[in-house]
Amino acid sequence: MKKMISIVISCIAIPVITFSQDAEKIAAQTEVWTPVPVVVAPAKEAGQAPSDAIILFNGKNVDAWETENGGPAKCEVKNGMMTVVKNSGSIKTKQQFSNFQLHLEWREPLPVVGKGQGRGNSGVYLQENYEIQVLDSYDNPTYSNGQCGALYKQAIPLVNACRKPGEWQSYDIIWTAPVFNTDKSLKTPAYVTVMQNGILIQNHVEVKGKTLWSGTPYYEAHGPKSILLQDHGDDGNPVSFRNIWIRNL
Ligand code: MG
To answer: What spacing in Å lies between the alpha carbon of 87 and ligand 1's midpoint?
Structure first.
């Protein structure tokens, strides 16, 4: 009788094992083992630079920056941050970039001075031509496609994620550079994704060209370009920046 039971169990078990082996074989057909992603060590604290980042500002000096014309950057560096010196001109990175992930932190000034576009206006110009607006948009109405987090005059931010002036805020920006044909015509447009304070405000938005104060955006062929921080030259206190790093993609 025992032998009989054993034979019956074997008959049941064998197909199960076969099915299991077949399932594993089929599943293995869709496993991809190469390439193996490069190891990048995350920072110990969120928002700090990972191991493969290029540090653009670490709170100590502005060696990675210069004026638009190539002279020494005239930012004030103090207490781990750099502050635009009013009317000294915008600054840009000495290094140039194409596709990248950019992290930066900024603080709108106190006391609050001015209103609308005149309150804490700066900007992060991606490849020198495409501005993600920096503005004190905390309880400060202005045109929606020019408020903080806008792709200036092209894309309204999905939400207003601004903190109060005097509080540090962050941008995490993913930039896909435009590609141009050999005759300088546009092959593929740029795309941008932006998180402000960890909140998605621009989601893979197609860029129509240079972000202009006036007129219709258009593209002008270019290669790798700098990150530029705008000196808007307003009457209020200028915007401060800290912890700026970038990863080439
Ligand atoms: Mg601006």
So the answer is: 14
What are 53-83's pLDDT values in tens digits? 999 999 999 999 999 988 999 889 999 999 9
Q: What is the CATH number of the domain that holds 207?
A: 2.60.120.560
CA dihedral 233, 81, 146, 224 (to 10 degrees): 100
Predicted model pTM: 0.89
Give the C-alpha separation, 39 to 218, whole Å: 39
Residue 78 located in a structural domain: yes
Give CA–CA dist 238/42, Å, rounded.
32
Reported as a single tens digit per residue, the pLDDT across 178-237 is 999 999 999 999 999 999 999 999 999 999 999 999 999 999 999 999 999 988 877 767
The distance in angstroms from the start CA to the end CA of the chain is 69
Instruction: Give me the domain span that covers residue 206.
Output: 54-248
Asked if residue 162 belongs to a domain, the reply is: yes
| Count of domains forming the chain | 1
How many angstroms is it from 155 CA to the middle of ligand 1? 14
State in Å: Cα 238 to ligand 1 middle: 12
If you measure from the C-alpha of residue 211 to the centroid of ligand 1, how many angstroms do you get, rounded to a whole number? 10
CA 99 to chain centre: 10
